[in-house]
Design a protein that fits this description.
The protein has about 450 residues and is mainly alpha-helical. It is built from 19 helices and 6 strands. The radius of gyration is 30 Å and the shape is elongated.
Length: about 450
């Protein structure tokens, strides 16, 4: 097939170079966006009198037929073409003759590919946002179910203070809600139309870029033609947002791996989302969580690859920019897959509250509350802190927990202790008294759930 750029060059290159240069094997997924862009371009050319009404109609109908046939499978994309844009123009010309060649008037593949990519990312942002909302819904369901399940919160992976499993889960809900915000904000910069920037310097035709952008649902146009064809900031921004999503999923996956092992036994992951060992019959491996954690690296790699590709490019378009797609497609696909599998895995996960509470009791995580008890009785916090520390040391020596110390043990450290100390340092009291905004008290957890529900309802 003759190259659409044949002319100054003969269009004949070695088969190895042709294959190396080709992008259709991966950019063919942009066919729907490419056709939608061409239909809008034909409409703009017709509006501006560059095409007749009859020509515009025939091009529109022809493009619509190609779209229908690709979707139905009646038309197979020819992978011997250089890219999806070349295939579309060749197919249109095959059907409409010389009229098909007019579709490329007042545009270049440079602004065309930038347009297709922006339209593709708009669709991906919607899908990924929907996946995030589904995961947040599962988190909310589990948080409501386990709002009263006391567990240890950690710092340095050491038992620190009491929280609830519901409160713990909501921390991830907040992370994913910020991911929604990042995608929505990135969408503002994605949704700007580059079409009409041409190869780099616009066109001599009297076109209407604003009209074409409006037809395609864009909020505006790229205001500088050089920038319009060379800008891939929006790709970097989306990849950054996707990398942060994967970071959150990876952290959550790590917790699931820890919580589900026999050293913790805080949760049991459904058999549907675990695998066994080929040698050890007792094993139940959290492979889905581990795979999500592992796939985070590939999305990070996609981001770094894009940054490195762009870092030294002069204006405007360079063939290096063909490398913008595979990593971007991979990152979008990976994030969608991970969100789906993680949400379903979490939905089927069962918490084991009795194990969580046992760990909470054994970790002296009410020591801060013990110190606060003394402060409320009039002791300076630093003195109360030291007294509580000595009582923890006494517990370790005796092999008991704070609640099991005698009244005499407490009195030996401070006369401020009274019988009411036992009620004050019970784990349930420690939870209910944490009434500060964002904390694990029942009312605070309910408010956090309300905030997340409002977020995903928009």
């Amino acid at each position: 097939m003759e190259k659409i750029w044949a002319g100054r060059a003969g269009g004949d290159i070695s088969s190895a170079a042709d294959d190396f240069n080709s992008s259709i094997k991966f950019d063919k997924r942009l066919y729907a966006q490419d056709i939608a862009g061409s239909i809008a371009h034909a409409a703009m050319l017709g509006k501006c009198g560059i095409l007749t009404a009859d020509e515009t109609e025939k091009l529109t109908v022809g493009l619509g037929q190609i779209l229908d046939e690709i979707k139905s499978g009646r038309l197979v994309i020819d992978e011997t073409c250089e890219d999806i844009h070349s295939f579309m123009e060749a197919e249109l010309t095959k059907r409409l003759g010389s009229l098909g060649k007019k579709i490329h008037t007042a545009r270049s593949r440079n602004d065309q590919v930038a347009l297709d990519l922006r339209m593709y990312l708009r669709d991906e942002i919607k899908e990924i946002s929907a996946g995030l909302k589904k995961l947040i819904c599962v988190i909310i369901e589990k948080a409501e179910q386990y709002a009263d399940a006391v567990m240890p919160g950690y710092t340095h992976l050491q038992r620190a203070q009491p929280v609830t499993f519901g409160h713990y889960l909501l921390a991830y809900g907040m992370m994913f809600s910020r991911d929604l915000d990042r995608l929505a904000d990135a969408q503002k910069r994605v949704n700007i139309s580059p079409i009409g920037c041409g190869a780099l310097a616009g066109t001599t035709y009297r076109t209407d870029r604003a009209y074409e952008a409006e037809q395609l649902g864009f909020d505006g146009i790229c205001e500088n033609s050089l920038d319009g064809v060379s800008d891939r900031d929006f790709c970097v921004e989306i990849l950054s947002a996707l990398s942060i999503i994967m970071m959150h999923l990876s952290r959550f996956s790590e917790e699931m791996v820890l919580w589900s092992n026999w050293e913790f036994r805080f949760v049991e992951i459904s058999d549907d989302f675990t695998t066994g060992s080929s040698m050890m019959p007792q094993k139940k491996n959290p492979d889905m969580a581990e795979l999500v954690r592992g796939k985070t690296g590939r999305v990070y790699g996609d981001l770094i690859a894009m940054l490195v590709t762009l870092k030294g490019l002069p204006l405007a378009y360079n063939k290096d920019m063909q490398e913008d797609k595979e990593g971007l497609f991979d990152a979008c696909d990976t994030v969608k897959d991970c969100l789906l599998i993680f949400a379903e895995m979490l939905r089927g996960t069962r918490a084991i509250p009795e194990n969580m509470k046992k760990a909470a009791k054994e970790g002296f995580i009410n020591a801060t509350d013990l110190a606060d008890y003394l402060v409320k009785k009039g002791a300076p916090f630093r003195d109360a802190y030291k007294i509580s520390g000595r009582l923890v040391a006494l517990c370790i020596k005796k092999g008991c927990v704070l609640e099991e110390l005698s009244a005499a043990d407490f009195k030996s450290e401070s006369e401020l202790f009274d019988e009411d100390v036992y009620g004050e340092i019970s784990l349930d009291t420690c939870i209910s008294r944490r009434v500060s905004d964002g904390g694990p008290s029942p009312d605070s957890v309910k408010n956090q759930i309300k905030l997340l529900k409002e977020k995903i309802s928009h």
